[in-house]
Predict the 3D structure of the following.
Amino acid sequence: MKVSFAYTEAAIVVVFCCVFLISGLGSPWAHTLRHDFPYGYGASDAFFHQSVTEYMKEQGRVKYTPPYEVGGYDNVYDAHPPILFQIAAPLSIMTGIETYDTVLFTAVFLLLLSGLVMYCIIRAHSTSIALLALPVTLLMLGGKSLIALKWGYWLFIAGVFFMLAAFWMLSKRDVKHSWVLLGLLLGATAVAHIPEFVFLGIFMALMLLWEVYKHKKLPIATLKTFIIAGVLAVILAAFSINIFIATFAKTEGYRGVTDTQLGTTAMTLVDLGWIGLICLAGLVLFLISKKKNSMVAEIAVFLFIISFLNLLGLGKRAATHRWFWYIYLCFFFGYAVYFALSFIKKEWRTYAVYAASLFLLAGFAYAVYVPSEKQWPGVMDKYNWESFTWIQKNIPEDAQIFYWYGDALQQGAVLYNAQHIGYKINPEYIGKAIQERRVARVYAFGLADSYAAYLCDATPFSYGYYIVNPKTRNATCMKGSSVITPSVPYERDICENEYHYFNAQSSNEPLSQYSLIVRQALLEGNMSEEIYRNDLVSIIKLKQTGVDCIGNITLSTA
Amino acid sequence: MGMELGIMFILLVLIIKIAFFKESIVTALRLALALFWLGFIPGYALLLYWKHHLGNIEYMIMSWPVGLAYWGIFGYMLGYVGVVFAVQIILLPIIALAIGLYVIYRENPKHSS
C-alpha cells in the first residue's frame, strides 16, 4: 500500500498542533476556554498585558495606556509594542471570551505557530528532517522555556514569531516581489518587539557581507530587495517605532548588562540535556556533510549566538532567546536523527521517518504533559478577582487604593485589575513594625505603575511627557525630559489614605497577620468602616482622612 | 481554493475542540472563526500571488504569520487614527480578500496581458 507523503505529513502536523494545544493550554485550563478569573498567570507581566488588553478592548483600539497604570493621566501613549493587544482584544470581542483568556490563548497560539514556521524553514532543506525536528518544539512547554508563557513574556513571543516568519521570507528572497512580504513581516516584527527587528537587521547585514565574500562582488539584487523591504517595514511600523524612540529607547536603550538578568530561570547549555547532545551531534554531522550551504543552519546558529549576546551588554533582551533553543536548534536534532535513519533501506526510510516523528511526538508530549488536576492555577484567586470587580463598580474613579500584604497583591500589575491607582505596601516596613512590637501609622507604599516615560501630545505635532507621578492638578504635558519624579512621599501615614485593601491569608503568615492587626486597629479607631468583605478580602474605608484613625491596639493585645 | 479554506477551517475547529473538549462547540466555533477571519483569511488572500512558489502545507502554515502581520500592522494604524475594532474587523479581511481576488483575476489567462 502506497501512503501519500503529503497527506501523512499534513496528518502529522495536525496531530502536532493538537498535542501542542492540549499540553500548552488545554490541560492547564482544564480543557475549557472560559474562566472566572485569570487562570495560569504566574507573574506581574502577564497581568500587565491582560489589563492593557482589557482597556484596549474597552477603548475599541490600541493607542493609549490605561490611566490607572500611569498615575491617573488620560491619553498617555502606550509605549509597549502593540501587536499582541491588537490581536487579543478583537478576539475577545468576536468570541465573547474574556480578554484575560484570549490574551494567554494568543500567546500560546503564537508559540505553536512559531514552531510551525520553523518547520517551514527546515522543510526547505528537507521535509524528513523537518518532520523529525518538529516534535522537539513541544519542549517549549516544559522546563525553563515555559517561563516565557507563565511569566508573561508574551510580547517577546510575538516578536520571535514574526522574526521567524521574516527568516522564512529571507530564505525565499529570490521569489519575484519578495520585498513586499519581507517588508510586511519585518514591519510586523518591529510592531511586535523591537529587539527581534534589530536582530533581523544584523542577520541581513551579515547575509550581504557573506554574499560579497563568497562571490567577490556586491549582490545587487539582494541588496535592492533588502533596502526596499527595509524602507517598507519602517513605513509600516512608523507609528510604533516613533513611540519606541520617544520612550523605551530613551529610558532603556542599550542595557550595558552582561548578566542574563533572569537569575536561575536563565537557560544554560546543561538544561538542554541529552537533547543538546543530539543537537551537537547534528551540528557536527552537518558540518562534515557535503550540503553545508543551508540557510536553516545559518539561522539556527545565528539565533543561538544571539542568545549569548548578554555578554556584550544586551542583558535579558538576548538571554530570553535561550528559552527558544528548542525551536532554534531543532533542525540539528532532526538532522542527527535522520542521519541515524539513513542506515535503513531506502524503500523503508520514509515510513521510518513517519514512525520516528510520531514516536518523538509521543515521547516529548509525555515529557511536558501535566494533567489538569496537577496544574498550578497561577497567582490569582476568585476572591481577589471578585474584589477587583467590585472596586471597579463601587469606588469613585479617582480614588486611590492601598494594598496590604497578600500573595497575589505583591505583583504590581495584578492591582491594575481594580482599575484604580494602587499602592502596595513595602513588606520591610511591616517587618520593622513587628520587630518593634507596635502598630505603626507610617509605612512605605510603592505606586503600581509599569511605564518609564509618560508620552503625550505636547502640541498637535509634537510629543511631550508628563513628569510627575501620580497626576497632580497642574500637571501638563511638556516637551523635554521624560524623567518622572514622584508627586507623593514614599512613606505615607495610613490615616491619610482613604481605601485600604486586606487579604486574610497569605503564604507569609507574619506579614498577613500583621496586616490584619492594622485592619483591626483601623476598625477599632471608629474612624473607618468595612465597605466590602468576602472569604479572603476586606476593604476598609476611612470616614475622614487626616485624623487619628487607629484604635489603642498593640501587637501584644491583638 | 474554497476546498482548501474549508478543510483548514474544519481542522482548526477540530484542533480547538479536541484541546478544549469541555468547552461548548459554539465557543470553539466562534474562536476558530475569529482566528480564521483575522489571521488566516487575510494571509491566505495576500499570499495568493506567490502561491506557485510554495507547497500546500507551507502555504497553509505561512498564511498565518502573513495574515497576522497584516492584521496587526494595519489594524494598529487604523486604531491610531480613530477607527475602532468593530470597523477594523470587517474592513481589513475584506480588503485582503479583494486583493486576493484581484490576483486571481489577473492570473486568469483571459485577463492577463
Remarks:
- Chain A has a mean pLDDT of 93.
- Chain A touches chain B through 64 residues (CB under 8 Å).
- Chain A has 21 helices and eleven strands.
- The first strand of chain A starts at residue 400 and ends at 403.
